[in-house]
Every structure is written in structure tokens, then in C-alpha cells.
Amino acid sequence: MAQTGLDGIPLALELAAAPASTLGMRELASRLDDCFSLLTEGRRTALRRHRTLRATLDWSYESLSEFERVVLRQLSIFAGGFTLSAASAVIASAEILASDVVEALAKLVTKSLVTADVDGTSVHYRLLETTRAYAREKLAEHGELEQAARRHAEYYQDDPA
Asked: How many helical (H) and strand (E) elements, i.e. helices and strands, does the chain have?
């Protein structure tokens, strides 16, 4: 089950506490869909990367290899969970080997940017909604959104399972 809003991220919860006292809980909850603009006031004494949710995601993104960044951006096309075979089929191309996608996905799980939900013998992957929104912005910034959406649609048209 995908989480929304703050995704249970401790930093996001801490950042939400400040506007909660002035906005009230109902108003705060109604604004959580735009968490990057709402959660901008961290403690001044915190490390720069811990002052805002965007700063934390920027730091994590910048610490990835270029290939891991590409894979993370491409994974943002999945609105919910996805399988390894779906990720490989959608991301692999003439320039990107499916085996490299598998390796990058494993690294992204290790770095907590992708979650792996194990259900018996099958594994479904997903991005927390905040991570997905961030990666989706990066996908659009790099001009990759249209191609990723097309490959995603083609995959599910051919293999709707």
C-alpha cells in the first residue's frame, strides 16, 4: 500500500510540525500534496541537507552515479508498485542493458530511494510518493518524460499483468 503526504519520513514529519501550529492540522493536511513548497523551514542549526525535504532529496540524488540517476528518473513513471521485469522492460534500450537496470535498482533499494515489498516469492518495488514526485520533476527537467511515458504505456499495452 503506497503512502502519501509525508510518507512517514522523520525529517518530513519534523518539518511539518512548524506550520501545523499556525495552519492547523486540517489546513496542513490539505496542503501536503505540495510538500516541497510547504516543508521549507527546518532548524537553522541543522546540516544544510536536513533543512528542507527538497535539500535532502537533492543531496541523495547528487550522491548517485549518473546511471543510478537515470534509472531513478525513469522509475518515477510508475505510479504504483512495479516488478523487476516491468522496470527492466520500460527502462532497457539500445543504450541501457536490462542487467544494468537490475543492478541499479538493487543499489537504489540499498540507498533507500526505492522500497522492495517481498510477498512470499514475489517482490514488488515502489518509490515513496515524495521520492517519486522529486524524480518525476527530474525526468521532466531532462526531457525524458514523454519517452518514458510512451515506453511505460507500450509495456502495459503488451503485458497488462
From this structure: 9, 2
Cell of 14: 519534523
Which tens digit of pLDDT belongs to each residue from 75-100? Answer: 999 998 999 999 999 999 989 999 99
In sequence order, the 6+-apart residues with CB closer than 8 A to the CB of 148 are 73, 74, 76, 77, 90, 139
Whether the Cβ atoms of residue 50 and residue 42 lie closer than 8 Å to each other: yes
CATH number listed for the domain at residues 64-158: 1.10.10.10
pLDDT digits (tens, 9 = 90+) for 39-49: 455 445 444 44
Residue whose grid cell is 510547504: 38
Residue 26 CA to residue 90 CA, distance in Å, equals 39
Domain parsing of the chain, residue ranges: 10-58, 64-158
